[in-house]
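Pasting as-is:
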Amino acid sequence: MLENIINIVYNIYMNDKIKDKLKVLTTKPGVYIMRDNQGNVIYVGKAKNLKNRVSQYFRNSPKPSKVQAMVDNVDTFDYFITMSEMDALALESNLIKKYQPFYNILLKDGKQFPYIKIDMKVPFPKLEIVRKVKKDGAKYFGPYFAGIDVREIVKTINSAFKIRTCSLNITETSMAKRECLNYSLGLCSAPCTKKISRADYLKEIDRVINFLNGNDDEIEQILTKKMMQASESENYENAILFRDRLKMIDKLKQRVVANLPKDVSKDIFAYYTDGLSGVITYMVVRGGKILGIISYPCHDAELEEGQTLFNFVVQYYQNLLVPNEIVLSHDIEDKELLKTALGKNVNIITNPHGINKKLLDMALVNSKEYLNKFLEKEKLKYNNTIGALKSLQEKLGLKELPLRMECYDISNISGTNKVCSMVVFKNGEASKKDYRKFKIKSVKGSNDFASLAEALTRRLKRLQEQNGESFKEKPSLIIIDGGKGQVSTCYKILQEFNLAGSIEMIGLAKRIEEVFFPNNPIPKILKAGSAELKLIQRIRDEAHRFAITYHRNLRTQKQTKTVLDEIKGIGPKKRDALLKAFGTSEAIAKASLDILETVPGITPALAGEIKEFFSKNKIEHSPEE
């Protein structure tokens, strides 16, 4: 009850703050942008009528939990008027990609499933595995995912039908010198040497297309016959190969949907939400078979669940081939707009019956199951990140929640190649783009205290100057890999920069995992196995790994460096070629110009540079080699 009263009061406050903008809102189509009190974009939406849609968010009426969560964080909004709803859809898509708001669905561009492509415009087509569908007139089959390996399907086809796999540009008049090994193995019909006519080759392609469209009987018969022949001739290796290909066919047959025509291609989208979190499950049906099913967790602050599904589908088909039919679990406001956005007059079904209803029910079951597992995973993630941070703050008595932690560690061998790592955790998770490494310059010998002081001084100076993306943000907590000595040294650096009051610091000693504080000789012992201890152990171990990796790389570079690297025009490849040809720098120095020019990549001008370099420097031998 109290929570509802607080929400009502807060919404009244929000309306008072933005009511002027609501009053002047137009009824035209457009895009609106919700911002928090820091000015960050947290949601982008489109509307056929801006005034009606935006006003809905700020009315004191019950809303889904996910919508209320977004509204609670809105401080103001902006909007753009467009000529049409289609223009609004395009602008919304661009703004979502630009700002990546938390409360919008945002599919990663990299998630592109594989297709089998057959380009029928070339005289002798072949099978290609591609991840981008183009409007190039070629035939595309797929997408394949969730347990179906497209490479295995291609291998299965090549085992049954004599389709070329080479990259030769074969025309009706071109002629290769000889056939490849695949022809000898009976895996290719050798169109390159005209062992098969174009007409007969295209008949073979038609058989492949027939299989990819869902007809398995012919390929199964061919592979079974080949397996038996190989077995009878005691070629058991090939027999096993054909047997494995038959298993792939059987795997595909197990995905056949009963009573579904083989020439139907359809996609099913099921959206399930508990009011706060949601999951959209995508199922692809091709050639009468379920080729794949996958689920995506989603945050979306749309007022209608159908609109959430609409937004998802529009984004999804930016990477995929649009089928003949799309089955949706929720009704959508404008089917024609969706068809226009997809660029195809697709049959959109929102109230399915019969087999479509069964497929949708299957997708919904997957959505519910996935959401339960996802929420468990999110709970575990929260406990190991934000939950662990809150516990760390409480156990160590920190002034603020350490949302940005930085950990420093030194690595060297007997004082050589000294380096320091800076590892950053944000919100309890590694932020690898913010990692930085320092090559220690001013410290002689093995002195970890002085090395840490140098690295921290350089880091804090960059903070002061606001120089460098990872250095601009101030850490909440600095963790030093070491005990009270290291912490005391580094704390003095904080004091020199007048940051001791705003940045907290601890040290984590490895022996019994003691936590040390500045100016306090008594360490704190965190409970073994606790989330807060595991968190600071993770960042400490990551800093150690990062420092050692950088140190090893420096050492390797030093070991492989030779005097040849000092010669202008000599890179790693030419250096290696010279050493392979002559063995040592001494031999290279003694070689004549004519002999140097015989080394691959060494031109007469470069040979002259090499001779001149050795003459000037009088180098007879390189001790690094």
